[in-house]
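User: Predict the structure for this protein chain, please.
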Amino acid sequence: GSSGGARSQQGGFDPSGFGGFSGGFSSQGFEGFDLNDIFSDLFSGGRGRKSSSQARRGRDISVNIRITFREAVFGSEQKFSITKISSCEICSGTGAKPGSKQSACVDCKGQGHINEVVQSFLGTMTQSRECRKCGGMGHIPEERCAHCKDEGVLRREAPITLKIPAGIENGETVRLAGGGEAIKNGASGDLYATISVEPHTVFKRERENLVMNLKVKLTDAALGALYPLETLDGQIMLTIPKGVSSGDILRVKGKGVPVDQKHRGDILIKVEVKTPGKLSSKGERLFKELRDEGV
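Assistant: Here is the predicted structure, written as structure tokens:
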């Protein structure tokens, strides 16, 4: 789908090059004519008009969504409502009373566009424009929708379901095609959601890895131990190896952020060995014995 960027419709010929052309003739008498439009029609065989779906597009909408750390890691589905210009639910955006017959537009004779003869410095030319009466559709309903007053759209609260991909980063944007504002006889704009991720109490994120600090008792660091660790997947028992030091990194494989359907990052645990503050007389005696042993 288009994101609103203009595209050239003229193949190899760019009529914008004529925009600054001012040599040798007076432009008096040609007010109201856009030279680019004239050249566009001339070099496209008089078929300068775009289809109604290309020409008409509703406005894009930007919203901010706050999600949890866990939702950012594993992905989620966010459901919310916003008030926006939406397609009429009664007539499905046609502007016609349901079941009403459609008649050919008398202004454009069912063509959806009107050819106008214009005078230019190149002589007499035929220029095509969208029919204002039928909005380029070529037909109009015999009975109009009473709910939207023939507008096809109206301002109302609309439900939105937004899929958040796994591994999304704070500040990234998710695009929902067609989630923007509707427009009669045209395509809806898009919705752009900027994601704000709530910080976690334990983990910080570094790309596909989850990083945390862990305080380990001095005796456990020396002798080794098992520590319960709460991961995003549930509790595991973490092995503290014998002789671990402050600053060492312990790794739990495959419990980090999903990279794809089969692979995940790791949990990286930075060890901080806690030195006891106050010691009992027995504890002090034991530490002295360790020191005497050269520990």
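The longest helix spans residues 281-292.
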